[in-house]
Amino acid sequence: MTFMKFNLEHSIEILQRTPAILNEMLSNLPSEWTSANEGPNIWSPFDVVGHLIHGEKTDWIPRMKIILSSQTDKTFQPFDRFAQFEESKGKSLEQLLEEFKNLRNANIEQLKNQKLGSGDFEKKGFHPDFGEVNLSQLLSSWVVHDLNHIAQISRVMANRYKSEVGPWVNYLGILKP
User: Fold this and answer.
1) Per-residue confidence (pLDDT) for residue 67, from 0 to 100
2) Which residue intervals of 69-171 are DSSP H helices?
3) Most buried among 28, 77, 136, 160, by the most CB within 10 A?
4) How far is CA 28 from the centre of its chain?
């Protein structure tokens, strides 16, 4: 396998697509598809969208700003991986998808407006769990985080029909534990 080096333009290409992908995957589906999960502590597609919203508000761009700032303490605030359960209460999936799209578009604009140079990507912040991290690692993680959750949504939805596919289960890797 050949790995890619971080590239801001390539990263933005993925980050820009995520809202549209999620909208196409989830909008106007019955809740049997969007509110089901695979068991305790595993999120539904609805929960994942709420989680992505919380990340747009508190993770990627705020942490980038800390890394690029002139402040001496570059420690990130811990990320609440479960904040979506409270923040999404009373909202429809369509509202969440729209909120995510708007937040992501604004964050991509902020990212582009930084006019980052190659030296900026090596600037460091301090993650409360991982220790020292650099900007290219943070931005790469943002991209992979999106892809991870798109795959998670696909897996959770596919598992809704796991008992229905019969013997094809052996050929559908998404249904294997």
Assistant:
1) 98
2) 84-87, 93-113, 135-158
3) 136
4) 21
- Longest pairwise C-alpha distance within the chain: 59
Question: Does this model's pTM top 0.85?
Answer: yes
* Residue 177 predicted with pLDDT over 80: no
Q: Name the nearest CA neighbour of 145 among 14, 9, 7.
A: 14
Confidence at residue 92, expressed as pLDDT on a 0 to 100 scale: 97
pLDDT digits (tens, 9 = 90+) for 28-79: 999 999 999 988 888 999 999 999 999 999 999 999 999 999 999 999 999 9
Phi–psi pair at 127, nearest 5 degrees: -85, 135
Please provide the average confidence, as pLDDT, over all residues in the chain: 96
Dist CA 78 CA 128 (whole Å):
6
* Nearest residue to 143 via CA among 70, 38, 73, 52: 52
Query: In 3-state terms, what secondary structure has residue 128?
Result: coil
Q: How far is the C-alpha of 109 from the C-alpha of 47, rounded, in Å?
A: 25
φ/ψ region of 131 (left if φ > 0, alpha if ψ in -120 to 50, else beta) reads left
